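Crash report, auto-generated. Payload:
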Amino acid sequence: MCVTALAAFAVTIIFRTSTTANFAQGAISAFGCYVVADLLNKHGIPVWIGVFAGVLVGVVIGVFIDLLVFRRGRHVNELGKQIITMGFVSLFFGGIPLVFGTPERIPFEAFYNTVKAKTSPNFVIPALGGEIVITKHAVICLGITVVVLAVLFLLLKYSKWGLGVRATASSEFTAELMGIDTHVITAISWALACGLGVLAAVMYAGGGTSISAAFMTTIQVNAFLACILGGFSTFYGPVIGAVLIPLAASCVGFLANFKGFYGISRWQMVIVYVLLLIAILIKPEGLFGKKTLKKV
Amino acid sequence: MSMTGTERRLLKKARRLKTEIEMLTASRDLRIERETEKTAARRAEQLRQEGLRAAEESFESLGADEIRRAITEKRLREENERYAALRKEILLCGYLLSDEENEALASAHESHLERIREKTTAELSSLSNPSAGKKLELPAVAEEGAAPDTTKLRERCDRKIENAKERLRNVERRLESSGASNRQAELEEGIILRIQDLKMYFGGVKAVDGLSFDVHEGEIFGLIGPNGAGKTTVFNCITQFYKPTGGTLLFRGRENEVVDLTKEKVHDVILHGIVRTFQNVEVVPELTVLENLLIAGHRQYSSGIAASALHLPKLRREEDVIRYKAEKVLSFMGLSAYAGAYAFGLPYGILKKIEIARTLMCSPRLIILDEPAAGLNDTETADLARLIRRIREEYSCTILLVEHDMGLVMDVCDNICAISFGKLLAFGTPEKIQTNRDVQQAYLGVDEEGESDGTA
Amino acid sequence: MDIKQEYLSAAYPGGAKKNIGSNIRAVFANPLAQIALVGVVLALVQFLALGGMISSAFAYALGNTLIYAIVAIGFCLLLGYSGLASLGTAGFIGLGSYVAFYLIEGMGAPYYVALLVTLAVSITIGVIVGFISLRIEGIYLAIMTLALAEIIRSLLMVLKATIKININNIVLFGVNVNEKAVYLLITATFVILMVLTSNLIRSPVGRAMLAMKDSTSASQAMGISLMKYRLLAFVISTVYAAMGGLLYMMYVRNMTTATSTLLTLSTSLNILGAVIIGGAKSLWGTTLGTFIIYGLQSMFLSKIRFFVDHPAFITMITGLLIILVVMFFPGGFAQMLAAFRGWLRRKRIERRIRAYVDDRN
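Recovered output after restart:
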């Protein structure tokens, strides 16, 4: 859930400043995650430094993509930009196994262990005649997510950069005329988005998931769906969407505990997807979105 | 005034059938014409052969002057053809001639012609034929014998047309019994478009605020106003690109019925004969000029997707009709030379013309021109004024235009509506508008603060 | 020339002149003739392989590539003509293959029943997903199809555990057939779909799609319903992908490889890459693109050690090519070829202009 929220925010910020959906988000995150895993497993670097380095790699990749590809391809239309990000997915999918070896399991033991070792791993809350298990890992993730998102929203609201982003988002051309350096704004947005992506991937992998080049795809799909559900036109919409979707999924999953609904968990994602389709059918611009008119 | 679902479906069906009948009729006429042409060509070829034989025999008795004239003419014609072919090829492959090359070509053409004249005279100076011999009679293509027997074709086509008409009558009967025709809004005779209390708000911005005016059938109507007055917004509302916040838009359709435009979808507006151009030219660069015109004929096809995928004869026949129509429009607009050229990279003036040509493809009743003179120079603007009048004469339609070029507006328009901040400022003939104080103020700036109404 | 002859031709101009060369050229310029020719050559490959003149592995790889080419043609219509991108290709291939598996192996249904069911299922899902996600912006389609593909993949992964792995009984027109006959079926399907698509492109439908891609407002003003044609393009691409899946299952006959390699996002991206690199607007370009991405690997590079050890290398190159092509040559190979031709044509025109000016006859 937290991971999705971060990823959703990352997708939105790029969508707003560069008018494209960044399909490479997941692949870049996975790349950063591999870097972190390599540093931790092979070089024994402390967790926080490793994570920081990974995020830095993400930032560098983000700036690199913006500088080398998007700035030069300004004449490329929206579809073209979208396809370029898809090209990056392919590039990273091919590149990761080449750089880090075959996409076998690289368990994230170091990170997992540090988290686990400090205290007992899980909180157990008795509820509804059953038990809700909250892992220590989840708590840490939640903490990080809340802090990061809070800082980001404050930045968006009050900082000069935030103002620039919002201005660029509403109209890049006008923003440029008003003396905002949209190049810097988009570069920072890409850096931020990719950095956030890596952070999200590390958090996800820290939960014990084995990593591969495509391991972030599911998360990314959820993030996109969250963006659609929440609406691309606000920054908070996707984050709320990111909370709602897993919630809906676990509600469906919860049904599986009851008699007659056994086996529903297999169709969990299908049901959520269909619910989402219905939501879009009713409110195409998203729950918190605003209608925009195209000028002709 | 609301219609039930069945009625709307029936109306739609009737419209489709009418299109089909029109198409079938056009196709029949074209096919008969083609048949006739073919027979005429065969006949002409026959006559040519006969003439050729006769001339061969009587060559010795022909006049020398006649021979000289004919041969010179032929050689000059060949040269002209060669020149035209080269020019066309240059145009089609998008090769931009520099001024020097252009001049060199033209002067080379002139000197070629001159040389051919000289050479021919020299060559033919010593003809043995009598100088005042007889002239050869060229056989004229006789009328009789040129007309082919098309009764069978006509019958076959007419059967299909009759069939469609029968279906249409059926639909109309059903429509009548449901009483849809009685529930029409009223529109006085002679008025083609009525805009009443039109409102278009974007959030808090009132782009158009309670605007009303009538457009009469057959007139050239100008909509003027300072930048941001909401002129294009009005157009977008008429063509349903924007759904108006409020107000009524009534239009007199092809069958003299009154259409409530706000209930139409944006891509159905064209069916009533309302077509528009765009401020920043919207021509499809990946298609040729001719194909760009075919796009505008899109709704005249009655063959569906299956016919398209299989290229059934029905589609081929319809394609033939539309192409023929497009070629006619192109020659009307003087664009025939560009027919096969891709729209990508053509000069701006040509693109603007293509846009206007596109509006002529669907037997228009109301043509909406959004700043047609923008980016044109003075001579081009003068041409445009003539063109607009010609279009009205030729297609007997109404033209509505937004324009900044006051010279053009005052020149061509019968009536002008001046708006400012989405509200009506003045309405009337060009003379009245020119002398109107409000209009002058809106254009030249407000001399007293707060004088202008409707500050949004 | 004789003066008499010249006079006669001047007085009686006209007369048809036709040469055989231009007639032959006209036949080969006809797209349908081109497709038929390629179809015959492709079918010939299998017979040559049967005769032992071509290695059967080569023919097998060719058949495999053709399946992807079928999928790519549908995608070409979606991307090159309607300007929409979908990431659900793999999902729809999976759908088709699962239907084939379930009906043919599980229920022993004949080919045409499987074909009809595949068509029905893919059209239904295509219409539902397309209708909802195309109501807004083009970008939504890519996202919704990506999600759908993920769901189909995870579902099939679950289902895979419960079904038998290999399928053996494929009945075609009442006869139990082997891969070699399926190869001919693939070729036939390829030719038929190629003809249909090529016809569609050269019809009002194709023009409407192009207009819609280049200018939504102009096409709307000209009476083209955006929803109708976008949906049409999407459904066609869905159907082609599902047909590809159906043929894949009949050809490869292995559910495990199907689910583990076919259904991943990489497949969708490879198809996208094939279309982009070959030329999104050109059917032959797309086919060429498929041969570059799939054919090259399976038919030739499989003999080179480096590519066997690092299969991911191809994926990476594909990605790189996609980026470069979109940035510098949005029309892919087809555009490069056209640009080259245009250049030649301009050179020729320049020569002709010079020749005309210098002409002193």
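Post-recovery validation: Residues 273 and 363 of chain B are 7 Å apart (CA to CA).
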